[in-house]
Amino acid sequence: MKSFNTGILAETHICARCGYCQTVCPISHALGWESTGPRGRIAIAQHVAAGQGATTEHARRVYQCTLCGHCREVCPTHIDTCALWLDLRERLAADNQLAAFPLKTISANLAKFQNVTGDPPENRLMWQDNLETPIANLNSHAGAEVVYFVGCVAGLYGQTQSIPQAFAQILAHANVAFTTLGGDEQCCGFPLLGLGQPAAARERARHNLAMVHALGAHTLVAACPSCYHVWRDDYPRLLDAPLNLRVRHASEFLGELIADGRLNLQPLAERVTYHDPCDLGRNSGVYEPPRQVLAAIPGLELIEMADNRANALCCGGGGNMEAVDAELVGAIAARRLTQALDTGASVIATPCQQCKRTLTNAARKARARIKTLDLTEIVWRSLAA
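Now predict its structure.
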């Protein structure tokens, strides 16, 4: 979609106040107040751009946003709302508005430990402890053709460490010459952009790209949609230079391996519904590769939810929202869970670590008999069957 973004103040004046954005905003749907939707944030942006500053409540409304991009998709005047929200957050961060939220802790963790959790860098290797079969040259192996960028959520949260375990074993099964950055990996920078700190994100970009180039790899693969989006779309902008690197999401790379006959997929008798992650779907335009991977698994039945692809509902886990309002994340995830349950599927498939976390937590809270699995986990189950 073409954007006419010409600066924060001019962009807000384009708004026709039609309200289409309000109807699709997950925050507006959950809370119901005008100030919690895109129109409310545009009013705050006008206030800030006019030099009138922002209150703590203004800042809360700005950060109560998952950056899902749905408002941008339906805007009839083509406002790039995601760019607008990030611009607004940058101004608020410059005015020290992060101090009122746990976001300040995330910012401090990223500055000191280069990850969102505050773990020491060596903890990024914890997921490797429980691999079914040890994999040689798994960390910082010079000469590997492919670097697997694991990401903070998959590497540091126990709930999602099965994802890098599955993906690494798939790559080894397909005889892909790959490595990870090991303890040298740093946060991709997505949370920093969401905080409104692009300069700090630029430093993460410089470090990570230098590490990949030092290994001589020509392809980078990320299973996290946010890492993928930042590497593919934000790094060239932040660094003002091409990466000279092929960037693929895990779903795209798995599709290539299947097409090349390198994965011998076995039957899985599962009824599956697919959840489109916002950063992979709306924000990166990748819709079909994950579905094609699922379709390649014999015996697997794929049933779409009522809202899918560009209209898919957000899971609630993006934009640093979990640190701002965890209860709101749960309400948004519960709405998406309801759509998944309506399909009668036994599994929610999603190629996103954060979506797995939010939807799994929602199912547990609702005591719903449905599992959420990452795409890599489903493929590994098929290979191991």
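Residues 140 and 375 are 25 Å apart (CA to CA).
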